[in-house]
Amino acid sequence: MKLSPASFKWIGAGQEEFAVFPEHYRAGEAGRVSLRLAFGYDLSKRIVFTKVTADFFNNDNLFLRCALTCRFEIGEDSWKDRESPDGSYIDIEQDLHVHFGAFTFGTLRGYLFARQQQSVVSAFLPPVNVIQMVSEMEETKPEVPA
Description:
Blueprint: E1 8-20, E2 31-42, E3 47-58, E4 61-74, H1 76-81, E5 89-90, H2 94-115, H3 130-138, E6 144-145
Antiparallel strand pairs: 1-4, 2-3, 3-4, 5-6
């Protein structure tokens, strides 16, 4: 059965974590970033939570951690379309997870910019391949009980 496009609305974002360790920051030195993406669900309210975390390192020393969560409410009809016939689980398609992930990484990008305007620590988010991140999650994706 082909699903109709999902109707949803963004209902907010919240900072989960923001920690700066300036003693580990070295301006001008090469660094690396570690990115994580996770999803959660409030089934009674038809909400999908998308959490992204970015850890920034200089020489394997963490100098900045930033994590935030965006919340999306799925429309009632769209939710019912994704519910199993017996109502025992919800199947959110990969494209919708990718869309929510890309939106949340974009939100994190703006949040990082705003938080660093008056800081000696400078970090930016590189391009993120959300499709690959979600695909890797999908390989081990459990069904979400309804």
